[in-house]
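for the writeup, i need someone to sanity check this before i put it in the appendix. the sequnce is what the collaborator sent (i think, or maybe the updated version? ugh). structure was predicted straight from it, no edits. if anything looks off just tell me and ill rerun, i have time this weekend
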Amino acid sequence: MPCHAPLILLAEDNEANIKTFSYYLTSKGYELVLARNGESAIAQARRHRPDLVLMDIQMPKVDGLEAIRRLRCDPVIAHSPVIALTALAMPGDAEQCLQAGANEYLSKPVRLKQLQQAIQRQLGAGAGVLAPQTSATSSPGVFPREKL
């Protein structure tokens, strides 16, 4: 199995968060694909088979909890780690996310160092995945991995 830079599916509908996460993660050497709602997240996960999914819980069309449940029912992508992200941070939110199938839960606003640590924890056991290389990225962007 060839090694590659980890591909992260960012499922997020807030433009400011998209820009912040995209810039930060690409500068850390990750490749990204973007979904702006839960329905698109499911389709993009099936198409790109990401190494990890960052899933906002409050999204249009299909919310993040339902999207996680659907991902976990698909044998092709059920193994991809999911980090749930939410601004609600109400009692019981973490448990709901974990019960839906998330591997971790982070409440917004997320500290970028905390996000990086969670990603590293989840990707640590992945076979065939290289640690991302730090690179200078001149502009934020979303970069899907080419098919091998």
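Residues 126-131, 133-148 have pLDDT under 50 and may be disordered. The first strand starts at residue 7 and ends at 11.
thx in advance!!
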